[in-house]
Amino acid sequence: MTTNPEIACSLSADELPKRLAEMAAIGKDSLLSVSPEGLLRFRGDRATRERLEALIAAESACCSFLRFDLREDGGTLVLTVTAPEGAEPLAFELVDAFAVDAVLS
After folding, report:
1. Domain boundaries, the chain
2. Quick one: DSSP state of residue 4?
3. What is the tens place of the pLDDT at every residue in 71-95?
4. By Cβ atoms counted within 10 A, which residue in 50, 66, 84, 89 is the most buried?
5. What CATH number belongs to 15-99?
């Protein structure tokens, strides 16, 4: 029997704007591009990696249904956010949160 993860976020109403602001700040500082499929490409420096890893850990704690894959590719960091069937719009909302203030090349 397969168990579907609960699609819920445990962030409080006070915490959510702070988390979205952190995503926007990382995007503004380091986001290079976003693919139509939602693949995020960031500068490959150590500071960006540390910020992304901290954010992934925090998001994984409050939204355990989301999956994050951070990898290096050609000197950049590539982040993929996936969600179970029916929750894909939530993954795209996170992608949009990174890109909201970014100036993409």
Report:
1. 15-99
2. P
3. 999 999 999 999 888 888 888 988 9
4. 66
5. 3.30.1360
